Amino acid sequence: xxxxxxxxxxxxxxxxxxxxxxxxxxxxxxxxxxxxxxxxxxxxxxxxxxxxxxxxxxxxxxxxxxxxxxxxxxxxxxxxxxxxxxxxxxxxxxxxxxxxxxxxxxxxxxxxxxxxxxxxxxxxxxxxxxxxxxxxxxxxxxxxxxxxxxxxxxxxxxxxxxxxxxxxxxxxxxxxxxxxxxxxxxxxxxxxxxxxxxxxxxxxxxxxxxxxxxxxxxxxxxxxxxxxxxxxxxxxxxxxxxxxxxxxxxxxxxxxxxxxxxxxxxxxxxxxxxxxxxxxxxxxxxxxxxxxxxxxxxxxxxxxxxxxxxxxxxxxxxxxxxxxxxxxxxxxxxxxxxxxxxxxxxxxxxxxxxxxxxxxxxxxxxxxxxxxxxxxxx
Amino acid sequence: xxxxxxxxxxxxxxxxxxxxxxxxxxxxxxxxxxxxxxxxxxxxxxxxxxxxxxxxxxxxxxxxxxxxxxxxxxxxxxxxxxxxxxxxxxxxxxxxxxxxxxxxxxxxxxxxxxxxxxxxxxxxxxxxxxxxxxxxxxxxxxxxxxxxxxxxxxxxxxxxxxxxxxxxxxxxxxxxxxxxxxxxxxxxxxxxxxxxxxxxxxxxxxxxxxxxxxxxxxxxxxxxxxxxxxxxxxxxxxxxxxxxxxxxxxxxxxxxxxxxxxxxxxxxxxxxxxxxxxxxxxxxxxxxxxxxxxxxxxxxxxxxxxxxxxxxxxxxxxxxxxxxxxxxxxxxxxxxxxxxxxxxxxxxxxxxxxxxxxxxxxxxxxxxxxxxxxxxxx
Lengths: 378, 378
Fold this sequence. Notes:
Two copies of one chain form a homodimer.
Chain A: H1 4-9, E1 17-21, E2 24-25, E3 31-32, E4 35-42, E5 52-56, E6 82-83, E7 88-89, E8 94-98, E9 113-114, E10 119-120, H2 130-144, E11 151-155, H3 157-168, E12 175-179, H4 187-201, H5 218-232, H6 235-241, H7 260-275, H8 278-290, E13 308-314, H9 322-334, E14 339-344, H10 352-355, H11 357-372
Parallel strand pairs in A: 5-8, 5-11, 6-7, 11-12, 12-13, 13-14
Antiparallel strand pairs in A: 1-4, 2-3, 4-8, 9-10
């Protein structure tokens, strides 16, 4: 039952929790121990434990998907989508979001203290893959008493995690909603990852990754984020937001950020370094590059029946273009999987998965109702 | 008359020349004096001085458009287009190419020695605009005895110069062939300029632009070039050239350039710093950002009759997308100008203007024959 008031209210004040477990064997062959995951939950697990939904964050996201942290004014990164009456309706579903393995927002990652040395891991941290992230999530679900997910959903790197769920744990996930994502990083996507990493590593303050006693490579990380932001927007959304407007009303023959778009990018870069760790940026972008579920890896032949899919792409997304989502759909259709595809007409570029929540909500509500075997108005 | 042998031979060994003049008043209000332009010419100016063609280079180009420098194996940047029997047929036309004002390949720019101080200008160099570049070119043409150009042609920044010729000197240019260019830099294009500049300026070796006694900011400039190269190629051309191939046949869980695309970009970056000056990169990208012939600036109302136009765009060019060329065409058609538009089906992205020379040749040969009032086979 949806209440309009509830939809407006959201999940209210929330706290990030942590769960630690002994360790994890990684795809690289190394073992990481112990492992902590930061996570939040919204709504309640029902009696037959059939209503759990995992939402998976993108590169710079975290466990705080919805609601407000005490004293903060900015809600979680997918607050428009998670809450009473929203797409992931917390009156119906038990929603879980965890900071990824390798992250820097409460989960074990390069910036966490290595208990063996008493210092942050830095670049001694083992490489993690999207497969490792998902296996860490299964440990959290075990802890929460969730055997099978009703759904795993997320955009971009979050979408890769949902595909990995389908590939690695098809018996633990009934449905999957990947948004603005791909079966594999293309060379152009690898190239953008690489220039971001080079921006970080070229900053002398990076110090080969051992910067924790000195402060992080702010200029390099800010530059990486500026490059990233260009790829998250579209030509059209930049034109709409900035056009050629200048901050002072004129150009001044200088290298200062005279154009609004320059000021915006510098501002976004400067903000990012306050909340994100540079080594983590390196590790997570590398995990993206290594991601590859092409061929028969998404649905191994002879494997279990695949989950149901709702694949969502955005017309103006040139970083994870719609053709990559269609490739996912083609693989699924080739296996007679139950798959719905929608390309949303948006000018927001890759950021659209965080912004086009009205259209996403309609699609996701009906899909989840069908997956639950219920009417959308139940 | 075209000889097939001539077409294969090209213009042979050429030398870059220089022309110096007293000085130039710049759009910024500053005066630059003296000014030297490096240039090359191919073919001969005819008796009535009616066969001169100016080819204008892009950001990282130079005066060496065609033929070979003594002892070098790599020809000029548009050798496929300039020579006997080629698009700009040196049996018919007198072709001129000059390094732009503000450049670092023989023309006066930030890396030139300031005669007033005996040291390179560095960031004391005045800002130059595309308008300044073109006014400097008119001085060179005066020197060469060329009153009116039969044609001005070039791609990208070179295309902007050709548009500037039409806007500022419509009585000195009979036809214009802009390729892969725009009436004005969009916010996305400004944004890519800006991250390239930030890459240079974030390198401590940049030293505020005073690096000439110490060696240039190689790492920052290489990174700027890496970012640039992503924008010069297309998603499709990168897929074709690199796909997800690795250099050793496997990924190794490292931040090394494991993927071929990473190795390629690093290689291109490392090569670039051997031949290009970092401050020049800042100044020329700023000139691109300031470029704006939108509104009625391309063809001022009440102005002279415009030259004839052949506007060429490339389907996969996402840095200077075809819609920007169509905007040029729309402005021209609105003024009843003689304009031909062609969008070439290429997967090479922005680089296509340097690579799709067969299709370009057909279009340009016929256009120039018509502009000259001759049959293409004359």
